[in-house]
Amino acid sequence: MKDGVLCRDTEDPDHFYLIGEWRDIDAHRRIREVLAREIKPEFIKLIEGERFVPTYAEIVTVTPQDILDKAAAE
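The structure assignment produced for this chain is given below.
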C-alpha cells in the first residue's frame, strides 16, 4: 500500500471512507483475510455488524508528478 486516507461523510458522521492505493486488488484481499483470521484488530468491533466489505475501483488517471511539483512550488 502506498498510503491511505480516512474520510468522514459530511452528511453522515457515522459513515467513513478509507481510500488506499494497493498494488492490486488480490493483494488487498489477502491482507484482509490475514486481518480477519489471525490479527483480529479491535477496531473491527466499531464497524456495524463487525463486517467490512470494500468497494474496489481501478485508477483511471493520476495527476503527473511534474504538475504536482509545479503547483507545490507556487
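Interim note for the steering committee: Residues 56 and 70 are 31 Å apart (CA to CA). DSSP finds two helices and two strands in the chain.
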